């Protein structure tokens, strides 16, 4: 076997690999580390927070945002006051900025925790929309427009998880 034959074989193998990888890549649901994947699997992924930082810096794609909305059984309108960008400006973009992407991932993590703690998605969504005594009779969902509000709601869900009521 000579060097030309080996180079040709390697080039053919690379072309085959590229062809196969292009065929395999398709819009799959719950692409690893997408926001909807985080809702479902985030707690089980080792080192996933570092990956989320990278994903936030790259920006969440519009398709991933739409997938999260669908997965949570929500509408964009429900998140209008929570996201730092307007829904109309988000509809014009294909990739969101860092601040919007971070809020999307915060929502994904919160919904993932809520789905783990509550019996069903509907029970969690109902809890989010019901005033909570431990949150000063505020509706948890309405507190999600700030990082402090996110933290308070997340802490409350963890208290519920461990049956520690305030």
UniProtKB/TrEMBL annotation:
InterPro entries: Antitox_Xre, Xre/MbcA/ParS-like_toxin-bd
Highest taxon in the source lineage: Bacteria
Domain Antitoxin Xre/MbcA/ParS-like toxin-binding positions: 114-162
Pfam families from the UniProt entry: Xre_MbcA_ParS_C
Protein name listed in UniProt: Putative toxin-antitoxin system antitoxin component, TIGR02293 family
Organism whose genome encodes this protein: Flavobacterium gillisiae
Organism phylogeny: Bacteria, Pseudomonadati, Bacteroidota, Flavobacteriia, Flavobacteriales
């Amino acid at each position: 076997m000579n060097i030309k034959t080996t180079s040709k074989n390697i080039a053919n193998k690379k072309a085959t690999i590229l062809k196969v990888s292009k065929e395999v890549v398709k819009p799959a649901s719950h692409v690893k580390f997408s926001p909807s994947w985080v809702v479902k699997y985030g707690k089980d992924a080792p080192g996933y927070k570092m990956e989320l930082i990278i994903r936030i810096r790259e920006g969440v794609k519009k398709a991933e945002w739409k997938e999260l909305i669908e997965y949570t059984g929500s509408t964009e309108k429900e998140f209008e006051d929570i996201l730092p960008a307007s829904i109309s400006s988000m509809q014009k973009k294909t990739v969101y900025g860092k601040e919007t992407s971070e809020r999307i991932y915060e929502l994904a993590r919160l919904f993932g925790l809520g789905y783990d703690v509550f019996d069903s998605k509907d029970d969690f969504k109902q809890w989010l929309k019901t005033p909570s005594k431990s949150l000063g009779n505020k509706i948890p969902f309405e507190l999600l427009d700030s990082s402090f509000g996110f933290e308070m709601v997340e802490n409350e869900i963890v208290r519920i998880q461990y049956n520690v009521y305030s």
